[in-house]
């Protein structure tokens, strides 16, 4: 728990916007192959701490919809690769632009871009600088 507290505090103090996937942890825990790993990392506790600390420090948390195909969409050209639905597919090459993707890095870039876009659509734009968490 101490690690979650320290990490969430560091992320919130270092960045102005944090973009995360809105995972349905309760549903994921029903999958016996994933349940122990998800419980071990305490994802729900981590996101709860991020949310209350973001409010406390005046930062923004943007949750990207659970059903957004973050790992299937090429972050370079937008092509949706249906063949990457299988979690065993860890790397893939976009057939449209030929970019090589690691599943998790590609998904994180897409989640970041979706969160920033959602923030831009709901926030008054002002001049300044912002830290962005990858």
Features:
134 residues, alpha+beta, two-stranded parallel sheet, two-stranded antiparallel ribbon, 47% helix, 5 helices, 4 strands
What does this structure look like?
This protein has 5 helices and 4 strands, in the order H-E-H-H-H-E-E-E-H. By secondary structure, the chain is α+β, with helices and mostly antiparallel strands. The strands form 2 sheets. The protein has a two-stranded parallel ribbon. Strands 3-4 form a two-stranded antiparallel ribbon. Helix 1 packs parallel to helix 4.
Question: Would you summarize the structure shown here?
Answer:
The protein is of the alpha+beta class.
Q: Based on DSSP secondary structure assignment, what is the total number of beta strands?
A: 4
Spans where pLDDT lies below 50 across 5 or more residues: none
Helicity level, as a percent range?
40-55%
The dominant shape is globular
Structural class: alpha+beta
Gyration radius, rounded: 16 Å
* Number of H/I helices: 5
Sheet with most strands: strand arrangement:
1-2
Major pleated sheet: 2 strands, parallel
Q: Could you tell me how far the N terminus lies from the C terminus, measured between alpha carbons in angstroms?
A: 23 Å
What value does the average pLDDT take?
Answer: 85
Strand content: 5-15%
Pattern of helices and strands: HEHHHEEEH
Question: What does the secondary structure layout of this molecule look like, with pairings?
Answer:
Layout: H1 2-14, E1 17-21, H2 25-29, H3 32-41, H4 43-57, E2 60-64, E3 91-93, E4 100-102, H5 103-122
Parallel strand pairs: 1-2
Antiparallel strand pairs: 3-4
Helix pairs in contact: 1-4
